[in-house]
C-alpha cells in the first residue's frame, strides 16, 4: 500500500452492503454464515442490525419472505454460495409464487473461474440459476454500484406485484475498497418504493355497473388484499355494499371471521350460486378451481370483477368482465367513492339463503367439534386450540400439513389482519418454523404453529434457532404417526415401513428439550389446553406433541382428487 492510500479514509464492499441496507431502513437479516459472507453477518450485528442465524437457508428465506409480507418492506436473506444459495432459492421461488417481497443476497465464487467452469470452491452461475425463480436478479461487480444495486433490488421486490429478488455478491466485491466520501455519495435511498397505482376511471365505472346488475354478489378477499394494508377501506367496501364475502386462507382476519357478512360457513354454496364475484387480490388458480367447473356451479354464467396490480393476471383462466388494475388501496377507495345511497344492498333472498346454509353447516360442525373421541382427533384437538386462541386475537398463527392445514383453516377463526401464515399458493410443506421465526421477530408477539408431523419434519431443526433467540413460539405437532395418517403397511409384508409411515409414538416434545425449550405431551384436549395456555403465558419456546388418532384424516387432506389414479391393475 502506498502512503497515499494509507492516508485516505477507505471503506469496503462489506461496509457498503450494510450501509446501503440501513440507508433504506432495513434492520434485520435472516441468514446462515460461511465463506464469503461471515464477516458481512458479523458487521451487520456490529452496526446495530439484527442478524438471525438459522440452521438451514430455506427457513431463513421463509422467515425473510413472511417478514416482507407482514411489513411491505423486503425481508432479507443472506446465504453462502452454491449449496447455501440453492437452499435459499426454494424460499425465493416460494416468495415469488406467493407475491411476498424478499431479497436473497448470496455470496458467490470467483467470476473468472465460475464462467470458465474451472472448478472453484462452491462454484455456480447463481445469477442465471436464480432468474427463472425470481422477479428480478442482479449481480454487482463494483463496490461503487452496491448502493444502486440495493436500491434496485428493493424497488423490484415491492413495486407492482411483489416478489423475490436475487442479489449476487461475488467474494471479491466484498473486499473491494472505496474512498469513504465517494462511498457515501454512492448510497441511494429509495423514494416511494411502491408507488400508488391509480385505476383508470372507466375501469372503476365498468366494475360498478357490473356490480349494480348483480342479484347474488360475492366478494372474495385474497392475501393480496391482506398484503395491501388497506384494512379500513376494505372493511368499509364490504360493509357499505352489504355483500357477503369469503376470505382466502391468509386473508382470514382481514375482517373478523365472526363478521355477519362472512360466508365462510357456506363456501360451496356461495361459490356455486353467486352471479357476480369481486376478486380482490386473489388469483383464480387451483385454490379457486380455476374459476370454472362444478365448484363454480357450471354452467351458470358468472361475471367476475377483478382487482389486481398485475394486468396479466386478468383473463388467466376465465374471461373477466371488469378488470380494475391498480393497487388495492387505490382501487377499493375509488370503488367506495362510487357506492352512494342509491346502491342497493343484496336482496333478502340471497342473504337469507346464505344464512340458512351457514346455520345448517355451523350446527353440523358444532356437533362434530363437541365429540370427545379417544384418542383425540383433528377436531377435538383443534377445538381446544380454537378456544384458547379466541382469547388472544393478537397471536400469530402458522399452519401447515394436509389434514392439519385443512381442518385448522376452517375451525380456527382469525380476528385481526395478517396473523395467519400457511402453505399458500404452492401448498408447500416446511414453511412452518421459518414463518414462525419471521413472524415472532417481526411482530414481537407470540406465535402458535400448528404443524402436521410430516410438515414439521421439513423444518424441525429450527427449534434450536427458536430456543437460541428465546422466541415466544409454541409449536403444536399433530402427531398421527405419518404423512396424512399412520396406518399404512408395506403390502409385501417386508420389514421396510410403508412410504407414508413414521416411527410410531414419536416424542417430538423431547426434541425441544435438547435445546432448553419446554416440551409437553398431550393426549387429551384438556392436556392440550393446559399446555397451550402455559406456553402462551410463559412466552417460552415450547413444543406440544399432540397425539392424534392415527386413523384420522384422509390421503392428501382435501386434495385427494389431485392424486393421479392408475387405471392398470397389477396382477
Ligand atoms: P390467495 O392465495 O389468497 O387467493 P393470491 O396470492 O392468489 O391470493 O393472489 C394475490 C394477488 O394479489 C396477486 O395476483 C397479486 O398480483 C395481487 N396483489 C398483491 N399485492 C397487491 C396490491 N398491493 N395491490 C393490488 N394487487 C396486489
Ligand atoms: N414436499 C413439499 C416441499 N411439499 C409438499 N406439499 C409435499 C412434499 C407433499 N405433501 C403434501 O402435500 S402434505 C404432506 C406432504 C409430504 C404432509 C402431510 O402430512 P402431515 O399432515 O403429517 O404434515 P396431516 O395433517 O397428518 O395430513
Q: How would you explain this protein's 3D organization?
A:
- The chain is of the alpha/beta class and 571 residues long.
- The protein is built from 23 helices and 19 strands.
- The strands form 4 sheets. It has a 6-stranded parallel sheet with strand order 3-2-4-5-7-6, with helices on both faces.
- It starts with a helix and ends in a 24-residue tail after the last strand.
- Bound molecules: adenosine-5'-diphosphate and ligand TZD.
- Adenosine-5'-diphosphate binds next to helix 12.
Would you identify the regions where 5 or more consecutive residues have pLDDT less than 50?
A: none
Main sheet specs: 6 strands, parallel
End-to-end separation: 79 Å
Helix content: 25-40%
Spatial order of the strands in the main sheet?
3-2-4-5-7-6
The gross shape turns out to be globular
For the residues shown, what is the average pLDDT?
96
Q: Rounded to an integer, what's the Rg over CA atoms? A: 25 Å
Derived structural class: alpha/beta
Number of helices: 23
Distinct small molecules bound, one entry per kind: adenosine-5'-diphosphate, ligand TZD
Amino acid at each position: 500500500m502506498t502512503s497515499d492510500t494509507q492516508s485516505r479514509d477507505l471503506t469496503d464492499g462489506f461496509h457498503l452492503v450494510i450501509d446501503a441496507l440501513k440507508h433504506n431502513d432495513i434492520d434485520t437479516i435472516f441468514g446462515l454464515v460461511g465463506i464469503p459472507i461471515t464477516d458481512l453477518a458479523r458487521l451487520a450485528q456490529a452496526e446495530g442490525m439484527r442478524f438471525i442465524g438459522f440452521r438451514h437457508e430455506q427457513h431463513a428465506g421463509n422467515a425473510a419472505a413472511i417478514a416482507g409480507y407482514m411489513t411491505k418492506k423486503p425481508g432479507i436473506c443472506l446465504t453462502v454460495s452454491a449449496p447455501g444459495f440453492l437452499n435459499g432459492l426454494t424460499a425465493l421461488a416460494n416468495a415469488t409464487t406467493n407475491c411476498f417481497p424478499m431479497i436473497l443476497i448470496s455470496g458467490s465464487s470467483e467470476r473468472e473461474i465460475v464462467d470458465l467452469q474451472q472448478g472453484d470452491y462452491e462454484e455456480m452461475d447463481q445469477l442465471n440459476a436464480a432468474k427463472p425463480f425470481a422477479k428480478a436478479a442482479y449481480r454487482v461487480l463494483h463496490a461503487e454500484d452496491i448502493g444502486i444495486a440495493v436500491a434496485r433490488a428493493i424497488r423490484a421486490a415491492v413495486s407492482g406485484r411483489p416478489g423475490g429478488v436475487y442479489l449476487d455478491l461475488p467474494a471479491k466485491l466484498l473486499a473491494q475498497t472505496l474512498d469513504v466520501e465517494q462511498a457515501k455519495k454512492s448510497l441511494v435511498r429509495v423514494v416511494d418504493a411502491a408507488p400508488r397505482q391509480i385505476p383508470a376511471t372507466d375501469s372503476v365505472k365498468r366494475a360498478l355497473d357490473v356490480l349494480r346488475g348483480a342479484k347474488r354478489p360475492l366478494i372474495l378477499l385474497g392475501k393480496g388484499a391482506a398484503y395491501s394494508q388497506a384494512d379500513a377501506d376494505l372493511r368499509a367496501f364490504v360493509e357499505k355494499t352489504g355483500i357477503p364475502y369469503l376470505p382466502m386462507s391468509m386473508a382470514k382476519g382481514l375482517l373478523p371471521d365472526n363478521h355477519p357478512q362472512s360466508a365462510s360457513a357456506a363456501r360451496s354454496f356461495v361459490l356455486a350460486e353467486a352471479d357476480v364475484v369481486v376478486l380482490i387480490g386473489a388469483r383464480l388458480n387451483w385454490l379457486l378451481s380455476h374459476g370454472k367447473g362444478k365448484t363454480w356451479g357450471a354452467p351458470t354464467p358468472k361475471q367476475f370483477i377483478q382487482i389486481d396490480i398485475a394486468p396479466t393476471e386478468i383473463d388467466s383462466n376465465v374471461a373477466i368482465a371488469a378488470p380494475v388494475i391498480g393497487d388495492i388501496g387505490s382501487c377499493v377507495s375509488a370503488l367506495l367513492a362510487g357506492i352512494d345511497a342509491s346502491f342497493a344492498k343484496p336482496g333478502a333472498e340471497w342473504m337469507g339463503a346464505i344464512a340458512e346454509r351457514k346455520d345448517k353447516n355451523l350446527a353440523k360442525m358444532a356437533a362434530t367439534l363437541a365429540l370427545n373421541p379417544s384418542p383425540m382427533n383433528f377436531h377435538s384437538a383443534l377445538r381446544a386450540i380454537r378456544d384458547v386462541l379466541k382469547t388472544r386475537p393478537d397471536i400469530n398463527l402458522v399452519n401447515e400439513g394436509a389434514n392439519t392445514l385443512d381442518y385448522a383453516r376452517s375451525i380456527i377463526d382469525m380476528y385481526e389482519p395478517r396473523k395467519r401464515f400457511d402453505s399458500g399458493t404452492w401448498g408447500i410443506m416446511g414453511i412452518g418454523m421459518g414463518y414462525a421465526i419471521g413472524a415472532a421477530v417481526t411482530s414481537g408477539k407470540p406465535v402458535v404453529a400448528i404443524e402436521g408431523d410430516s410438515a414439521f419434519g421439513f423444518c424441525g431443526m429450527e427449534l434450536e434457532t427458536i430456543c437460541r433467540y428465546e422466541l415466544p413460539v409454541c409449536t403444536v405437532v399433530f402427531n398421527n404417526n405419518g404423512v396424512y395418517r399412520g396406518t399404512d403397511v408395506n403390502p409385501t409384508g417386508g420389514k421396510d415401513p410403508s412410504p407414508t409411515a413414521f416411527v410410531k409414538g414419536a416424542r417430538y416434545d423431547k426434541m425441544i428439550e435438547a435445546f432448553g425449550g419446554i416440551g409437553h405431551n398431550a393426549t387429551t384436549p384438556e392436556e392440550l389446553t393446559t399446555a397451550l395456555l402455559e406456553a402462551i403465558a410463559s412466552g417460552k419456546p415450547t413444543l406440544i406433541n399432540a397425539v392424534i388418532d392415527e386413523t384420522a384424516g384422509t390421503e392428501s387432506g382435501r386434495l385427494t382428487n389431485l392424486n393421479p389414479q392408475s387405471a392398470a391393475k397389477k396382477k
